[in-house]
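Tutorial sheet, problem 5. The two components below are modelled jointly, 618 residues in total.
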Amino acid sequence: MHVHSMHSEIDITTKTHSASEIMKTYLDCIPCFIKQSLEAARMATGDEEIQAEVLREVMKHLQAISFTNSPPELSREVHEIIRKITDSKDPYKKVKDQSNEMAKNEYPYLKKLVKDADDSLLMAIKLSIVGNVIDFGTSNRFNVEDMIDVAVKKEFVDDDYPRFKEVLKQSKSILYLADNTGEIFFDKLLLEEISDGEKKITYVVKANPIINDATIDDAKFAGIDKHAKVIAGDAGQSKSTPGMVLSYASKGFLELLKTSDMIISKGQGNYEALSDIDREVFFLLMVKCPLVANDIGTEMARLVLKVKE
Amino acid sequence: MHVHSMHSEIDITTKTHSASEIMKTYLDCIPCFIKQSLEAARMATGDEEIQAEVLREVMKHLQAISFTNSPPELSREVHEIIRKITDSKDPYKKVKDQSNEMAKNEYPYLKKLVKDADDSLLMAIKLSIVGNVIDFGTSNRFNVEDMIDVAVKKEFVDDDYPRFKEVLKQSKSILYLADNTGEIFFDKLLLEEISDGEKKITYVVKANPIINDATIDDAKFAGIDKHAKVIAGDAGQSKSTPGMVLSYASKGFLELLKTSDMIISKGQGNYEALSDIDREVFFLLMVKCPLVANDIGTEMARLVLKVKE
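Model answer (C-alpha cells):
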C-alpha cells in the first residue's frame, strides 16, 4: 500500500521533558490515575453511584496536587480516597489472590525453564522481570504468556548482566525490593538462584494493601520466607505507596538500603521512587508506561535489567 | 506455551449496562475526556502551566456533570473549557489542515480503488467508513493504511447493504451527516457514487470548530459543494457538538431530518447523538470506543454499516 499511516504523520505538538524533571508526576499521569480509580472502584463495589463518587473525589483531589511529588506518592493518596469511599480496606484482594494462585500453579513449569536453561541465573532474572507483567497499577496490560515466550526465545539486551553477576558474587547482603502479588512466585525463582546459604537476603514488601502490591502475607504464601528475611519496608505507616518512597520508609529499611552490598529493585513503582538515590541499584522491570520508557531510554513492553549508580 | 494470559483469566468485576441506558455518558467517558483535554491543550499551547490549568478546570467541571447527557453534549462543554483557558478558538486547526491535505493527496488513489472495484458503490461505502479512522475525539487510534487494506481485501459484514441500495434507489432526497476533516474526502467518493444529478443531497457539517469535526470551509476545500448542498446543522449556535445533538440543531436541519428520504450518518458522535431517533438511519462508522462497540453489538476497530429504525 502506498498510503501511509495518517495519524503517525500528523504532528501533535507534545512537550518533551528534560531528564532532571523525569519521574516526578506528569500531566499524563492524571487521566491514568482516574482510569485506575474507576477500575479499583468497580473491584470494590457494583454500585455505580459510589463509583461516580470515587471519580468525583479523586478529580477533586487531583485539582490541588503538586506535580513535584512522584507518581507513587500521589497514588498513595488516590487509593486512600478509593478505599475510604468504597469502604473497602483492599479493593484488589480478589485479583491479588487470583494472581497468587495462578502464579503458584505456573511455578513448577517456570522452575523447569530455569533448570533447563544454559544460564540458569539469567533465565531466573528474565522470568522475574516477566512476573512484573502482573500489574494493576498501570494502564497498559500485557500478556504473561507472550512475555514468557520473549524471555525464553529472544535475545535479552543485558549489557548490565555481567555487572549483576560480578556484584552478586561479591555480595554478602542483598536487599530485594518486591513489587506485586503473583510476581512474587517469579521472584522466588531468582531468590533460589542467588541464595547460597551464606548470603543474607532481605525481601521487602509493603506494610499495607496498595493496588496489587505484595504484603507480608503474600510473601509467606509464596514461601519467600524460606529463602529470605521478609520485612515491610514501610513498617509503622498506616498507608503504603506502590514503590518504596524513602520519606515513608522505616529506619530499618533505610539502614539496609545504605549498608546492603547489593540492591535488586523490582517494578516501575520502585524505579519511580528510587531512580535518583545515590548508590548502585539493579532495577528489574517491565516497561508499562511511556514516561518510564522515556526515562530509561527504552521502549514500551521491554524487559529491563538496568544498573543505576 | 501452556501458560495462558493471566490477566484475561482474572475476573475484574465490571458493571454491564442495559441497552436502554446505552449512549448516555458513562463513567468510562471521564478518564477519556481528561486524556483528550490534555491532548487538545497541548495542541493549543506548549505552556505546561496552562495545560495543567485545563486539566484542573475540566476535572472541576466533570465533578458536577449529569450522566444522563450524551457524550457529545459533554464534549461540547469540555472543549469550551479548553478553548477558553488556552485562549484558542480552534486547537485542532493544525491537525485538521494536515488531515485535509493528506486525504486530498490520497484521493486520486482512493478514486481508482472505487473505479476498479466490482461493486463501486460498496467500495465507496467501505472507504467512506475507513475515512472515519481520522479522529482526534477518541482514545483509540487506528492506522488508515491498515484500514484501507481491510476495506479492499477483506469480506465486509454488510447485511444492511441490500437495504442501503434499495433505499438509495428510491430516494430523491438524501441527508448526509459528516464527521471529520480529512474524512470528508472519503465522503466525496461516496457522494460521487450516489449523486445522479437528480437526487437532492444535503451534506451536514458543524457551524463552529469542535475537535477535528468538519466545518463549511472544510467541505468547500474538499469540493463537496459540487455534489451536495452544504449546511451547518447547528447554524445559529455559538458552540458545536461532535455529533449532531438534536437539542442544538437548526430548524432547517430538523425539517430535513424529518422529510429526507434517506439519512446517512457518519461517525460515532452522530451515532451517539442519533441512535435513538424514530426513523431509519444508515450509520457508517468505525468503532473506536468499547461502549459504542457494546451498543452496536460488534467489536472494536470494525467498519460498520448499520441501519437503525
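Marking note: Residues 1-23 of chain A have pLDDT under 50 and may be disordered. Full credit if you identified this.
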